[in-house]
Amino acid sequence: MPKIHADSKLKMKYLCPLILALSAAAEYSGTVLYQSPTNLWLENIAARANSHLLITSAESPTLYTVDPRAQSVTLNEVFTFPNATALMGITEYKPDVFAVVVSNLTLGPPREALGTVVIWSVAFDAKTGAVSASPAVSVPLLPNSNTAAPQNAICINGISPLSSTVILGAESVSGAIYAFDMVSGSVTSVTSSPQWIATTNASAPVQLGINGLKYHDGYAYWSAGVEELFGRVRVSLGHHDTIEAGVVEVLTPIDNPYTVAGQSADDLAFDRAGGAWMAVHPSEIVLFEQAANGSWVQQTAAGDASGIDLTTFNGPSAVAFGRGEEQEGILYVTTKTGQLIAVDTTGSTY
Ligand SMILES: *[C@@H]1O[C@H](CO)[C@@H](O)[C@H](O)[C@H]1NC(C)=O
Ligand SMILES: *[C@@H]1O[C@H](CO)[C@@H](O)[C@H](O)[C@H]1NC(C)=O
Ligand SMILES: *[C@@H]1O[C@H](CO)[C@@H](O)[C@H](O)[C@H]1NC(C)=O
Ligand SMILES: *[C@@H]1O[C@H](CO)[C@@H](O)[C@H](O)[C@H]1NC(C)=O
């Protein structure tokens, strides 16, 4: 008996680390296609129909483009916005026409200077490919109904189209969703939640509230830092273009099994099966899938949930699926340390 006991103990000793290693391992690996030599903070991605990616930076007023299929991937300038320091969310709202959040931004904690925030429209000519850019919505000091939030500050972050003229935008400080009309220039409050508010504690490891936003199947799906939540709210266009919002639903808290101090939910993207892939700081891509019973289950799809291995996913800021031939299963990821990463989601790594 003592021998068997010792034997099983020995087995446990060697099996346990293996089991732990497997359960902690992410299902998909990432390939770094590009690393900025200056660690330029890359902030958001939009994939064009021609498979090129448009990339914004929170540290530069230049909109970049990359061809992720190139042998050697480089960032090339598309347009540099005047009188600004940073770009945040980008989204396509008409074929090859993109909305971009342009502002004077200070980082740590991220704040866009009041009066400097403008949503621009950037259009690519279908025949010549020529770029034209024009300011569409000048964002004023927004009405802030969440009185617990820092006042007199904004951070329009993730944006997503509700229609071919109206863009929804997450405001990460007051904790609200706004609608921006790219034709009339109007700004409308859609809804707000105490769960979306930024912290007023400047030394807290997670600063921003609502961050990522994706309009999908009639809902604005959102991620929120501070409280680390994934949720949705039904939003629709009513008569005379009024905007109607349902109740704010929390779908699931974002797991933090390693109690990582700086875990913070960022941008998200939907795959064809309806799974939501989310960039989560400091080093993880989380996949949320709806189970048959309706609840949302999550797994670490790529990166390191413990926040220790920062080599490949060092501060994931945005995710977008590629477009075009052999691109639709590739998840592109940007990081705040200047990485562009490709994750092939069509086959797992083991
Ligand atoms: C915004 O940044 C631009 C570019 O650095 C600068 O010229 C401008 O004065 C800034 N505006 C404000 C209001 O800070
Ligand atoms: C730059 O932005 C400021 C407000 O932020 C504005 O007063 C000024 O007119 C702008 N300058 C240009 C050249 O657009
Ligand atoms: C602010 O955040 C820091 C870092 O997490 C924490 O140590 C401190 O207690 C917080 N302060 C308040 C007033 O909550
Ligand atoms: C729903 O299904 C998931 C996946 O099978 C399971 O993990 C979860 O416990 C279920 N939830 C309920 C409330 O039954």
Q: What is the CATH T-level topology?
A: Neuraminidase
Number of domains as seen in the coordinates? 1
CATH class: Mainly Beta
Bound molecules: 2-acetamido-2-deoxy-beta-D-glucopyranose
* Beta-strand percentage range: over 45%
Q: Please tally the β strands and state the result.
A: 26
Radius of gyration: 21 Å
Order of helices and strands: HEEEEEEEEEEEEEEEEEEEEEEEEEE
CATH A-level architecture: 6 Propeller
Please report the distance between the alpha carbons of the first and last residues: 38 Å
CATH homologous superfamily?
TolB, C-terminal domain
Q: Count the helices. How many?
A: 1
What characterizes the major β-sheet? 4 strands, antiparallel
**Inertia-based shape:** globular
Summarize the structure.
The protein has about 350 residues and is mainly beta.
Question: What is the strand and helix layout of this fold?
Answer:
Elements: H1 2-24, E1 30-35, E2 42-47, E3 53-57, E4 60-66, E5 76-80, E6 86-94, E7 97-103, E8 105-106, E9 111-112, E10 118-124, E11 131-138, E12 156-161, E13 166-171, E14 176-181, E15 187-192, E16 210-216, E17 219-224, E18 229-237, E19 243-253, E20 264-270, E21 276-281, E22 284-290, E23 296-303, E24 316-321, E25 330-335, E26 339-344
Antiparallel strand pairs: 1-26, 2-3, 3-4, 4-5, 6-7, 7-10, 8-9, 10-11, 12-13, 13-14, 14-15, 16-17, 17-18, 18-19, 20-21, 21-22, 22-23, 24-25, 25-26
Bound molecules: 2-acetamido-2-deoxy-beta-D-glucopyranose (NAG) (4 copies).
